[in-house]
Design goal:
This protein is an all-alpha fold. The chain contains 9 helices and no strands.
Length: about 160
């Protein structure tokens, strides 16, 4: 659900020697913390695909940094249901729902999407990445709808050139 658009744009030189950075503690206190944390995770998974090849490994890696209510809630779930069959997508949604209940979250995403406009000096691809992130949390859009939504939200001067 939470995606890190920058990850899709990166190209990794094959001769780089990278080290896995420690995860920041995750307390689940805000949507901003949630987005930053999962962007960090998705980047790690992208940089080290062999180390994070399965959902179970991704979940176990992520669990190390859970603190407070997210750690307690996941322990309760894990004790009752176990980790077998739990997907990465389910786990992300589980933690997201602890930060903001699903109904409120869906409403705030819809509102953010409706109000989204390109900021002054914001590049089109950056604004498009933001829209795609919001769209990823909503019902599926066709490519034509995505293009039209982008054009409608660009600066007026850019729309006139389209």
């Amino acid at each position: 659900m939470v995606t890190c658009p920058a990850v899709a744009l990166m190209a990794l030189p094959s001769q780089l020697h990278l080290r896995l950075q420690p995860l920041m503690p995750y307390k689940g206190l805000s949507m901003k913390e949630h987005r930053i944390y999962f962007c960090q995770l998705e980047t790690q998974f992208w940089l080290f695909p062999g180390d994070f090849a399965t959902d179970k490994i991704r979940i176990l890696h992520t669990m190390q940094a859970l603190q407070g209510e997210p750690a307690k809630a996941w322990n309760r779930y894990n004790t009752a249901h176990g980790i077998q069959g739990v997907t990465w997508e389910f786990f992300k949604k589980f933690l997201l729902n602890l930060v903001e209940n699903p109904e409120s979250y869906a409403l705030s995403i819809t509102e953010d999407y409706a109000l989204a406009r390109q900021r002054p000096n914001q590049l089109v691809y950056g604004f498009n990445a933001y829209l795609e992130q919001l769209e990823s949390h909503q019902e599926l859009y066709t490519v034509t709808q995505q293009i039209n939504n982008l054009i409608l939200r660009l600066h007026k001067s850019l729309r006139e050139d389209s």
